[in-house]
Structures are given as structure tokens and as C-alpha cells.
Automatic annotation (TrEMBL):
Annotated source species: Herrania umbratica
Encoding gene (name): LOC110408980
EC annotation from Swiss-Prot or TrEMBL: 2.4.1.21
Pfam families: Glyco_transf_5 (PF08323)
Protein name from the UniProt record: starch synthase
Catalytic activity: [(1->4)-alpha-D-glucosyl](n) + ADP-alpha-D-glucose = [(1->4)-alpha-D-glucosyl](n+1) + ADP + H(+)
Functional pathway: Glycan biosynthesis; starch biosynthesis
Amino acid sequence: MLMATSISPAIPSSPSRRFSILTTPNAKFVKVPALCCLRKNGEINGLSRTPSPMDSGGQNDGEMSLSSNVELEMKNNEIWRLFKEAQQNILYLNKQRLKAVEELNEANREKQLLVDKIEQLEKETRRASGKDNLALCWALLLRIDAMVLGGMISPAEATDLRRMVMDRKVSVANVFSDMLQKRDAELLAELRHFSEGSKKKGFHIIHICTEMEPLVSIGPLAPYITGLSCALQRKGHLVEVILPKYASLDLDEVQGLREIEAESYSYFNGELHGNRIWTGVVYGIGVTFIQPLYFSSFFNRDRIYDYPDDFERFTYFSRASLDYIAKSGKQPDVLHLHNWETAIVGPLFWDIFAKQGLGNTRILLTCHGLDSQCLEEPDKLALCGLDPGRLHRPDRLQDTAKTHLVNILKGGVVYSNKVVVMSSMDSKGRIIRSSHGLEHTLALHKEKLLVAPCGFDNSTWDPSKDNFLPVNYSAENMRGKDACKVALQQQAGLSEHASFILVGCIFSEVSDFELEKLKKVVWNATKGGAQFVFMANGAVPTINRALRSFQEELEDGNVKFFYRYDEVLSHLMFAGSDIILCQSFDDPLLQVPLKALKYGAAPVSITSGDQNFRYSADHDHEITRFSQFMRSTFGNMTLSQALDEINNNPSTWKTKISDAMMRDFSWDAECCDIHVSAYTAVKSL
């Protein structure tokens, strides 16, 4: 019977040497008898050699057979040894491969952790560093404010010093970067020594508002304040913001937050009440926070809006802002007000504060929607020092429909020098005709009315330098967009190929009507092979429920859903999509259509062909450049029409996409230009 021989576990150094015996050209192959194993009961197993017919022969034949069998047995042993050695080698190589794969995965995990750590460190460095020019200038400006409130300098000298700082901000930042820790008296001496006088260049604008990104963000006002302010300062204007000091403020991005050690009082309900004044710098913008002492509960709440005493809360803040501006000696060119919450500043300014050294200041009101207007009893106007009898009149604050009440937003329109309505798509005439009861007032003041589109932050949203993308690209070189599409398909679990048409959808809310339209659009498009990726805003439970129901009803492998908003994924969705489905082209909160154009994805409305574009021809010249562009390109296009054009006219489609990417719809472009023209107009009055 064939006996098992021990096999050495040693691994040959050369793979070619391991199998040399099997592949030698001179090797002779012999016929091997069948082998079998005999068990104790005499049954045959398959490993011992079965008797051959010659085994029963004579002794000589037996000796020859024995010699032959020994030779065969040795060869069989050698074959089994080589087989088992090869088997061990294969197992060893497989272990090495698995080990290499694990090491590669670990290296990728460490790389991602390192990238995340670097991004976090860069963010912390940007947050901690206050030595960029604008931040340093604002630190100086806020110290000047404190000097005025503390009585160290006069308002007139403070105005000269502020102009000097802004007009020579580069050299001022270099000179004073190491002086901010000095005492006020020493810093003032250095400022006076440095001051050589300067000619006024840009406008000085103060926003009095209730939101600012990233400190407090509820609606479209927050990104607008930050985006427009940064754009204005890049063009040489001095911009600052005054906010209530909410208990819920996110102060992580505030540089140099400090309390001004000076008494600050404001009038309310027949008395003067103390306030704490805080200052800091956010994204290079000087920010002042007003914190009431006696009425501390006004802004120490869970929500920002929708309380029964909202009129009292924001009227107190508006009056306190004006009292602070007057006492600090500021003489801004424009006080920029926002929505009804600070519209009361208009009548307050002209009835009380224009006579307190602010005679050269003008008022601009921005409305981010005309549906919220705040109607109140006229007597409440006396809380902030206004005369109800003078203002409760049809040509001032009296509401048109409910004549026994005053309309605060109407008062802002009447008492402002210019009014800007934020709307990317509507014409001026359409806004006037559908202004929720303000039709008569806006028609009467239509010469002061301007329409401006929202913008987006093109320093964060730019595919040519977006750090969240696997490959960057631009209108001049679009090759990276295909790589982004494959990366998005991979992350969503879709079939990976750049030839598929991929449609992205980022929604903050969805109505029942829009959901039914969406279902029909998606079903029709998937029949033609289109892929869809949906991402919802996880902060809104209703949209998650609606999309989950849609997913269960759809059951299509070409449609994938993400139920929590993810910043990195959102960048990849814009970059990897050919088309972005939009709920509206007027999207001041998420700015989806604007970002889509920048990333080379066509914005297509779920309800294309609806009222968005039904304007009469005589109002076309009063719409924004963005609206004009959308009407001439993707505005009236349905999803099926867009898919057909991509498939049937790819060169025409690519030309449209390239042209869209090269246009500038950021805060720095049309939005900023319209506001500068408004500031220029009011200063010439």
C-alpha cells in the first residue's frame, strides 16, 4: 500500500523553479496504475493501487513487477509532493494577496483620515487667524467705535479715522497687525500718527438685520447678507452688520469677539434701557451684536421668529441699533434694512435720527418676500418713540385693507429712498401686480423699486478648484466632469459609465402636486435609460417621508435616494449630473439653479412651461439678466426635451453648457451691481 510521505513546508525562492520538473522537455510520462486504499473491512477506497492482471504471475514476473512498482511508486510520490507543494504555494500567495488588499484599504483609510484632519486644521487655522487685511481693518474699526463710546475721541475724528483705515487697508493692516493688543490710548496715538487723510472712495453701508450666515440662518436673508457684504467689500466698500445677540448664535466663525466696555442705552416704552454691545469680525465683515439687559428675554429663546411679541422684539432692536449708530458717531452713506423686522427703521430715521448728525445718510430697504408684512395696532408705534397720529395715514403706514391697523412693511417702503425686491425670475411689473395687498403702494413708489437676483458663493462653488471633487474641470476642459459622474454613480450604487444621462435632484421641500409631477417625469425618463440621484434636506421630515414613499412605489435600480443632506455629496451631485431638476428657478436659499449652471449641469424645472415665464412683452426689459438667460436656454425646456437634445444634438448641448459655465451669476455679479447702482442713486438724492 502507498504510504504518505512528509511534505516540507518550505517555499521555493523561484516560482519557475517550483514547477521545473513538470515542464522539463525531456520528461517521460508513464501510465500510472489506479490507486486505492484498503480499509480494515476489505472495502476499497480510491487511493491504493488495484491489482493488475500481472500480479498473479510467477516469481520472475513478480520481481520485475515489484521493481516496476517501486519505480512507479517513487514517481507517484514525487507527483503528489509537487502537487501538495504547489497547493501550499497557491495558499501562500492568496494569503499574501489578501494581506496586500487589507494593507491597501488601511492605507486608503489613513489617507482619508489625514485629508479630513488637514481640512479640519485648515478650518481651525482660518478661524483662529485674524491677520488677513479685512479682519485686521475691522478689528481697528471696532476699536475706534469703542473709543467713541468711551469718550476718547469725537465722532468727527472717528469718521476720519474710519475712512483712513478703509482707504488704506493694505498698508494699515501691515502696520497695525502687531498693535491690536495695545491699550486704547497707545493705539489711538499710533492711528493719529499714521493718519494722513484720505479721499473717500467706496460707500459705507450698515445692514440692520435679523440673520447672517453662518451665525444665524433661517431663510434666504442669511446667505444674502453674507454673500452681498463680502462682494461689496471686495469692490472697495465698507460694510458692517448689526444683529440681535440671540442666545442661539453660532459664534464659532466670529473672530475677536469682545464686549465694548461703555454704557449703551436705547429708548423703549417711555424709558431708557441698557444694552450690552459686542463686536467681532465674520468673514472679514465687522459685526455688532446688541444684547438687551432689561428685555433680556426678547432674544433668549428657542426660535428666531413666530412669537406673539415679534413686533416689540424687533422694534426694540431697530431703535437700539439707531441709538448705537448715533452715539458711536458713525455716519454711514446707507442704512440697509431688511424685511418688515427692521423696516420700522425707515420712519424712525426720518422722524428722529436724521436730525442727530445723520442728515447725509440714506435708507434702502430689501424685501425677500412681500407676503409677511406685520400688521399692528397704531398705538404700538409709540413704544419706540414714533407718533401714531402722524403715521396712521393712507400715504404712510395705514394698511390698505385693514385701515384700523398700521402696516410695518408698507412704512418701510414709504420711508425708504430705494426698495430692492429679491427675485431671480419675476419682472418688476409682475411683482407690483401680485404684492399681497401692497399693489397700490408699490405702484405709487415704482420709481424707487428695483429687482435683483440672488447669487451664490463662487469661492466655494467652482468646479475648477473644488476640493470635494475627485477631478477638477472647467468650461475650457470638461474631461474631469465624466470622472465626477462615474464617482457619483459609484457612490450611489448605479451602473458606472459616463454615457448614461444622470439627473440630480436636491430638494428642501416638496408639495403633493410637485411629487405627482415628479413621479411622472421620473417614470418617463427611466424608460429611456436615464439615471436619477435624489438628496433631501434631512432637517425637513416631510420631504423625507414623501421621497421614501416615492422610492417604495418606484422600485427602480436606476433611481437612488439619499435622505440626509451631505455637503460633500452635494458638490459631487452638481459635478456628476448632466441635468439638475429644480423646484423653482427662483431659489434664494439653496441656489440650486445657479450652482448647476456653474458646474455644467442644465437646470430644468419640474413644472417647466408654468407661470414662471408667462410675462407680457412690455415687461421683458424689467427682468434680471439671469431671467433673460434662462428664458433663452433651459427655462422652457422639459426634462424629456432636454434628454432628447443631449441624445440627438450633443454638440449644440455642449455649446449651451459651456456658455452657461462661463457666465457669472455669483454675488459679485448682477446682484452686487444692482445694489451698488441703488446706493449710488440714493446718495445723489
